[in-house]
Design goal:
about 80 residues, alpha+beta, five-stranded antiparallel beta sheet, about 20% helix
């Protein structure tokens, strides 16, 4: 599994995200027939209201969540 990109939640995004992960690693992505980004596959750490849990999961980000949440509320980690 290659990490293509790591994204971190911005301060502004902390109040606005529906996704809610502090940090995600993008491991794959896919496009539809028109060439529009359709799915982003990520690995992220689960959290509770008390903070990170130490457990990780693989999850897809699809459709409007890609452009309206992931790309708006997260920055590329350098």
């Amino acid at each position: 599994m290659d990490i293509k990109l790591t994204l971190t939640l911005t301060e502004r995004g902390r109040e606005r995200t529906d996704l809610g992960w502090e940090r995600v690693d993008v491991i794959d992505f896919g496009y539809d027939k028109r060439g529009t980004l359709e799915t982003v596959i990520c690995v992220g750490e689960y959290s509770s209201k008390h903070g990170p849990t130490g457990s990780f999961g693989v999850f897809p980000v699809v459709g409007d969540e890609i452009f309206e949440d992931l790309f708006t509320n997260y920055d590329v980690e350098k």
